[in-house]
Amino acid sequence: QEEKKQLTLKVEELERKLESTSAQNIEFLQVIAKREESIHQCQLRLEEKSRECSSLARQLEMAIEDAKRQVEQARERAVSRERAAQSKVLDLETQLSRHKTELNQLHRSKEDAERRFESRLQDLRDRLEQSESTNRSMQNYVQFLKSSYDNVF
Questions:
Q1: How far apart are CA 8 and CA 1, in angstroms?
Q2: Number of H-type helices and E-type strands within the chain
Q3: How far apart are CA 64 and CA 97, in angstroms?
Q4: How many Å apart are CA 112 and CA 121, to the nearest integer?
Q5: CB atoms within 10 A of CB 75
Q6: What is the pTM for the complete model shown?
Q7: pLDDT tens figures, 57-88
Q8: What is the rounded distance in angstroms from the CA atom of residue 140 to the CA atom of residue 148?
Q9: DSSP symbols for 1-40
Q10: What is the pLDDT, as a whole number, of residue 153?
């Protein structure tokens, strides 16, 4: 009986331990369930964040491509403007050269005209002087003739 009593006590103790272990097991199962739910929620958030990152990466790639395209267009416009400006500079330099040539020709023409004018003016002065000299000679001759006629009559 003593053995039976001890065995009964042992059985009761084992049952208590079993109940305690069962309670702990239930608690552990609840903790595991909560953790699994937490892991599941984390996986859902991770998937959502992953989709968000993929979407942002696509948007970033599109923005980078758009920026590259805009930079290329701006560079092409700048190159085009530079070419146009260089062309304009060349045109202006050509016009300047042509105008300088024309100005030089006009200066030469003016100098030639001035020389011709001076020559013609000198010619006219010489002729005027010669004409005045001839005129004086003729007046002297006429005076001579008058005085001769006066003397004769």
A1: 10
A2: 1, 0
A3: 48
A4: 14
A5: 10
A6: 0.47
A7: 999 999 999 999 999 999 999 999 999 999 99
A8: 12
A9: -HHHHHHHHHHHHHHHHHHHHHHHHHHHHHHHHHHHHHHH
A10: 72
